[in-house]
Amino acid sequence: MSDRHLPPAPGVELRAIKLFTLAHVFGLALFVALVVSFFWYLNEAADDRQRQALYRDVDAALQAIKLRLRENQDAMVSASADVSTITAPTGRVLEAIQDFLRRNHDALYVSVIAPDRRVRWTLAARGVASIPFRAERSQVVEAEGVDAFDRARELRRPTYTAPFHAFDDEMGFEM
Question: Are 81 and 112 in contact (CB under 8 A)?
Answer without folding.
Answer: no
